[in-house]
């Protein structure tokens, strides 16, 4: 008798995070929903990760892949796992995050209940390196997103594109269930990007499908001290986001109004980075502008317009918290 494909393929990528590995894997093994395969891709870890992962090799849901050569990025290892997936849906789990026990059950229920939504994503709890609760990602969203997504909500693709033009409102891959066919139809995670590949994926999917937001916290997204932006990292991240937005506009033939909206959104993102870390943002913007303005003649205009837009968001948020 042929094996029946599971409903969900969880693609779990691992690289040198032995401290968090057992908690991450156990949170998936312990899901109340059982119709899933767990495809583990260890990207040639040099710590004790492989030994830890081998202890799960005999679990009936686990398909363990220990790579002998490092791929060079989580994007490549994630996509490799996707190619091995057999489920109707894919969830990309990362080795330093962990799931609530009901995550797959809730996401699967919504996916079946709202078939027009090719992506189901939830609110994420932010935690530090020691597991301390830092709040959730909903708290830092613009008021327009908060008003629209104060409860479980079906979002049309164009509406999701608009939200994604101002922030990556799905902050990590571990928070979302994706229709596997649509993942590949969208082009998947683009390997050319190392810092904004997920953002590019969500934007591409917004042109193909609706999204469904679950207002319940189902995922724990770990924040590391190492993620604090340096000048070099900020330059690279801004360049990638700008390239993602530009290439998306061209690939999907957005009209002038839609292109302008994305560029204003980019200006708002830059200004948000400036507010978070003025010293690094100020130091990087000159170098970034010199490079980017060669191809983007009106970049300064969009940075300024985006800054005014972000200021408006901040005022609106403050007004609604009084």
TrEMBL record:
<keyword id="KW-0808">Transferase</keyword>
<dbReference type="GO" id="GO:0016757">
    <property type="term" value="F:glycosyltransferase activity"/>
</dbReference>
<dbReference type="InterPro" id="IPR029044">
    <property type="entry name" value="Nucleotide-diphossugar_trans"/>
</dbReference>
<feature type="domain" description="Glycosyltransferase 2-like">
    <location>
        <begin position="9"/>
        <end position="122"/>
    </location>
</feature>
<dbReference type="Pfam" id="PF00535">
    <property type="entry name" value="Glycos_transf_2"/>
</dbReference>
<dbReference type="InterPro" id="IPR001173">
    <property type="entry name" value="Glyco_trans_2-like"/>
</dbReference>
<keyword id="KW-0328">Glycosyltransferase</keyword>
<dbReference type="InterPro" id="IPR050834">
    <property type="entry name" value="Glycosyltransf_2"/>
</dbReference>
<protein>
    <submittedName>
        <fullName>Glycosyltransferase</fullName>
        <ecNumber>2.4.-.-</ecNumber>
    </submittedName>
</protein>
């Amino acid at each position: 008798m042929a094996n029946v494909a599971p409903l969900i393929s969880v693609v779990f990528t691992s690289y040198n995070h032995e401290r968090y590995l057992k908690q991450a894997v156990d949170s998936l093994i312990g899901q109340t929903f059982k119709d899933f395969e767990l495809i583990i891709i260890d990207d040639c870890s040099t710590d004790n990760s492989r030994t830890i992962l081998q202890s799960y090799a005999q679990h009936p849901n686990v398909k363990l892949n220990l790579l002998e050569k490092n791929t060079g990025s989580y994007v490549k290892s994630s996509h490799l796992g996707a190619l091995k997936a057999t489920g109707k849906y894919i969830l990309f789990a990362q080795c330093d995050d962990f799931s609530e026990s009901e995550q797959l059950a809730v996401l699967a229920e919504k996916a079946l209940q709202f078939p027009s939504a090719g992506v189901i994503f939830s609110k994420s709890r932010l935690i530090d390196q020691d597991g301390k609760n830092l709040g959730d990602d909903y708290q830092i969203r613009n008021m327009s997103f908060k008003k629209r997504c104060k409860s479980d909500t079906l979002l049309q693709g164009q509406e999701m594109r608009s939200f994604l033009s101002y922030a990556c409102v799905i902050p990590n891959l571990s928070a979302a269930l994706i229709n596997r066919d649509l993942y590949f139809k969208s082009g998947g995670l683009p390997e050319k990007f190392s810092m904004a590949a997920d953002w590019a994926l969500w934007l591409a999917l917004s042109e193909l499908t609706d999204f469904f937001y679950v207002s319940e916290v189902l995922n724990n997204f770990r924040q590391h001290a190492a993620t604090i932006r340096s000048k070099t990292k900020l330059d690279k991240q801004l360049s990638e986001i700008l390239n993602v937005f530009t290439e998306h506009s061209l690939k999907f033939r957005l009209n002038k109004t839609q292109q302008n909206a994305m560029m204003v959104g980019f200006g708002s993102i830059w200004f948000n980075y400036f507010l978070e870390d003025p010293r690094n943002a100020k130091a990087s913007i000159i170098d970034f502008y010199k490079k980017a303005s060669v191809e983007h003649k009106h970049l300064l205009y969009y940075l300024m317009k985006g800054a005014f837009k972000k200021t408006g968001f901040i005022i609106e948020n403050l007004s609604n918290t009084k």
